[in-house]
Amino acid sequence: MYGLIGKKVKMTQIFNDDGHVVPVTMVEAGPCVVSQIKDENNAGYNAVQLAYGQKSKRKTNKPMNGHLSKSGLETARVIAEFKSIEDFEYKLGQKFDSSIFNIGEVIDVRAKSKGKGFAGTIKRHNFARQDATHGNKHTERAPGSIGQASWPSRVFKGMKMAGRKGSDNVTVQNLEIVDIDKENNLLFIKGAIPGANNAPVFLLKK
Question: Is 124 left (phi over 0), alpha (psi -120 to 50) or beta?
């Protein structure tokens, strides 16, 4: 497999062979079940759909229930597609877990970052404060000018302004797998990854 769906557990630290502390993120990698196989004949491209986790049966509608039942599942928390490996025979209901990864392997991790609500330009775009003196009255955190006067008489698209911060899909590249607990399907990934604890993450092999 070229990737796997998992769940962020928490951040912690471990000691390497040199006795140095390494900050790591614990990620539950799978198990994921093959819920659909796509190829050139039925979809026009090659991919494998994986299903991870469970949720309440009453939150799964009938079309999705019928789709998952083909692979022996009743519910799934997350469904995602990954590139399939050529000349590998996938089967519906086949399971993949942390065993597809190796210690020392470098992977990319994609997840949705924490939502921080409506934020000003200082917090959202790292703007500097204005002067707190020299005639400036109570506008220390104001963004300042956002355009011109008579021409072009509009605000350009993409102007950095206050607005919703976070809750975006973020990919962190080149993270090293420091350790693997295969019994519990846990990966110890060096560094931090986006998202809150128990949030779904996508582990992408290079």
Answer: alpha
